[in-house]
Write a structure and sequence with these properties.
SH3 type barrels, 38% strand
Length: 730
Amino acid sequence: MLKKIITAVLCAFMLLCTVAFAAEIKAGDTAYVVYGGTVNVTKKATYSGAVSTVSKGTRVTVLEAYVVGEDNRKFHKIQLSDGTVGYILAYTTARETTPILDAGETAEKDLNKQWASSDPDKYQHAIEMTFLSDYIYGGSKTTEGKERNFYAKVPTEWVRHDRPASLPLVGMAIVHIGDDGKIGSVKASFYPGNPPINYHSRRLDELKAIGYDPIFAEKSRTEANANTAFYATTTNEFEVVAYNEKWVAIWSEGGVDETRGSIRQCGEKDGTAFTSWKPAVYFLPRKNCYILDINNQVSTPPQIQAVGKATGLLMVKTTPDDKDYVKSGIIKLNQSIQIVDAAPQNGHYKIYYKKGIYYVETKYVNMQLANTQKPTTQYKATAAVDCDISDGSSVVGSVKKGAAIDVIKLNYDGKKSKIWFNSKECYIPTSNLEGLNKTLSAADTAKLGAPIGVLSVDTPWGEWGALTYSAEGLAKLKNYRYGYINVDEKMMSEYNKWVLSNNGDINKIHDREWVNVYGIEEYSFDRDADMRDIPGIDPADIEPWIITGKIYTIFYDGEIRYLVHEDDEHETFTYYPGSGFSKNSVAKTQTVCLDGLKYNTVAYNIDDNNYFKLRDIAKILDGTIKTFDIKYDAATNSIDMLSFYDYTSVGGELKPGDGAKRKALSSSVFLTLDGVPIKATCYNIEGNNYFKLRDITDALDCRVEWDNSTKMIWVIPARTAYDDPDEIMG
């Protein structure tokens, strides 16, 4: 009996202590639900008559504390973030030992523990749901941001909105699926982890109330979809407001699918259920996001010390550490890199990437230092295998199969080839090279002499273009009897495959393009000569069928090529002998935009292409990753663009057009990049050489875009000419 009494006293004391030390809730407090389950919010201080539900982490405002209600149980009168007023039980049981609400900083800290990072130095933008609760689906602050144009007639909370100013931006997230570039979609969630309610069903109920419920959505009302907000496709970018090791909190402006699911959306799953969502904070798996952290972003582009090419897949990191970093993106094989500091830090280069300072490993970077002249290369090639690159005494880098390699001298010692790597002469086993394409030099082109005329693709048949052949291609064409094969079926099949292969042997001059002509050779042959070889046929019965034509020696696409034209064929071009080919054009002022700066300079529009003075282009690109200087060689009649050299101004650059009409004469000057001739159509206007802007930017591998609404040209040095470097590999 005594033991029972002592036990009862101890229990009572413990109960009193629990009650005494429980945080007291007062009217006016901001409180949080600390109970692990779902709790009803009722219209009155009763168990029934629910007007809403709340779960752990929900923030409420206490209007009245400890109101005595049904069965003498205590309730709190509260207001939810959406304005709903109701009552919630104060304790889980009648014994009043476990409160449902708690107030103060202690509750916030406890509630945020489940989302906290284990490494706060690495993840400085922790997910704090007590703060983000006002911005998730149905939160009170989701529509604070600027409203976007929206044509669907829906309530404000469904209209697209920008991120609220009260929700700090901590970076950008780029969706990916692994580092190898897999394409697909990634689920965005309403809540990080297990949701307290079925958000998806709530979304469908709300869409039904406004008349935009998806037609086939009911099948998706499952607990498995409770946390499915929408699907983001790879390369999608979102504003980041917080992140940790598992989750990335993103802002989405939302939107309503006006087709109500009748049209499948990009990345859609299960037909139609997830195409509408409110502007709010949502959550993506951390493993599916590259993060451009705000701490790494800079407002002013830094000085670039060197440029590089990725010789393998490169991970972009927030720090030069081998372990303590955040993945910020992937640089693809042969993609350009802007190097801020050519001196490695812990085996990493500091780079300028997507308007921020980041790091990549040096091992797979082929670096070119500023103002270091690159020698003329003999071949363009690619690595046939993964291998190391040596400078003769040590390994200076590595390449993956497919990496671009500039060969200075092929097989110089019988085993190795001399290449240009990391701004110096280096070596690679010749057996590790493939795809060798011989390059011309300015001296090679000079051997052509002065042009004898111009060939312009400008006839009514010009839209078909005009085929050209390399020297090797011309030899094959002649071997294949110019395509007139009557007997040998095997040879005919080989010829057709060769024509369709679209390799470097055959190229096409397009409509309204022109080239200089350096020689014309006439040819003739009997197209039916092979018919006389058929057994049983008297050769005398086969009359000659003579085909005649001309072979034009031209310079096109940076190569000496040959255009073969049969006399009886439709002429897609016109040959203009001598130097009489010209165009008339007006000197207009064209705005070119780069890095937020606007340059107004003279341009001549000829055949729907803008031609600029080469020095104006150099001046605009000076100081960027595509900067180049200009050197003229009278001996070879060539203008050499020295890549990644500071431009030497001569004065008079970037003058506006005066509106005068002038004659543009075809020019025979050769344009080279680091000594290698490139494709470039050139007109001479009053002593200055004007080039097609697209030819120059293509040679530099630089992006150019036309904004038709503003009639402005945008030059984007950090993007490649045609492949999108912002396309993330994940």
